[in-house]
Amino acid sequence: MTAKPRYRRVVLKASGEALMGEQHFGIDVSVVDRIASDIAEARELGVEVGVVIGGGNIFRGVAVASKGGDRVTGDHMGMLATVINSLALRNSLVKIGVDAVVLSAIAMPELCESFSQRQATAYMNAGKVVIFAGGTGNPFFTTDSAAALRAAEIGADALFKGTQVDGVYSADPKKDPGAVRYEHITHAEVIQKGLAIMDTAAIALARENHIPIIVYSIHEKGGFGEILKGGGHCTIVAD
Ligand SMILES: Nc1ncnc2c1ncn2[C@@H]1O[C@H](COP(=O)(O)OP(=O)(O)OP(=O)(O)O)[C@@H](O)[C@H]1O
Ligand SMILES: O=c1ccn([C@@H]2O[C@H](COP(=O)(O)O)[C@@H](O)[C@H]2O)c(=O)[nH]1
């Protein structure tokens, strides 16, 4: 018999950058397929899953702003990038028989439905994987904030951040080889210590809504399921 999963309903924030695989830009379908298989495993455990995907493999608004362009236009481009990634994930999920729907914060009815809290909750109750595209729909935010916002809106028990590293460290482990990984840390400590694993707005929103954040490596096949089963390799951010 399979053990009861640790959480009933979660939001997974999947790294956009990870979707590039070995490429320098864009989408490696084999990576998206692998992430889809991890989500399928979570569904088999009975966990309701919402997903937010970043857009860093395609575009970030700051790239425009850093060259003197209009930040808001850049952010619009970044949000569109998240829609492309969301459609790719839906495709990979449907291919393996997982019922999935994309709800976008920016209306584009020819491509997908628009987000509403009520519709998202109804789909999740019905067992569909709901992919939240278009970030928050507002410039000057990130998909981390979108993930924390959607987690609060749909009453998620936890926010999973599947990223390029396997947890929260005392400093960026890609820059500081001496950085030490935390097993547990509070939301307040992450903010106070200025640990840049997620943007502060996202951590603060999760904290206010008592949502734990689980940071793990999206590259670890089966890692999502292992954590849901009560094991796995991650940092738990909780008060
Ligand atoms: N204290 C820290 N602990 C862990 N990682 C950190 C820390 N500070 C900075 N980082 C860096 O933050 C990165 C995650 O940032 P970010 O959310 O921008 O990436 P991502 O998950 O790939 O998202 P995106 O969807 O935007 O591509 C990690 O890959 C890591 O290098
Ligand atoms: O609510 C949001 C979410 C995202 N953006 C823009 O999209 C890109 C890609 O998202 P990442 O979180 O960086 O992966 C982001 O850089 C912003 O430009 C946004 O404007 N609003």
From TrEMBL:
Entry's EC annotation: 2.7.4.22
Biological process terms in GO annotation: 'de novo' CTP biosynthetic process; UDP biosynthetic process
Enzyme category, top tier: transferase
GO-annotated molecular function: ATP binding; UMP kinase activity
Pfam families, A to Z: AA_kinase (PF00696)
A GO cellular component annotation in the UniProt record: cytosol
Coiled-coil parts of chain: none
Activity regulation note: Inhibited by UTP.
Annotated positions binding ATP: K13, A14, S15, G16, G56, R60, T163, Q164, Y169, D172
Protein's cellular compartments: Cytoplasm
Residues noted as binding UMP in the record, renumbered to the chain: G55, D75, T136, G137, N138, P139, F140, F141, T142, T143
Gene3D superfamilies named among the record's database cross-references: Acetylglutamate kinase-like
Transit peptide among keywords: no
Keywords of the record: ATP-binding, Cytoplasm, Kinase, Nucleotide-binding, Pyrimidine biosynthesis, Transferase
InterPro entries: AceGlu_kinase-like_sf, Asp/Glu/Uridylate_kinase, Uridylate_kinase, Uridylate_kinase_bac
Annotated SUPFAM superfamilies: Carbamate kinase-like
Catalytic activity: UMP + ATP = UDP + ADP
Main location group: cytoplasm
Family: Belongs to the UMP kinase family.
PANTHER family the UniProt entry points to: URIDYLATE KINASE, URIDYLATE KINASE PUMPKIN, CHLOROPLASTIC
Record text on subunit structure and interactions: Homohexamer.
Protein name: Uridylate kinase
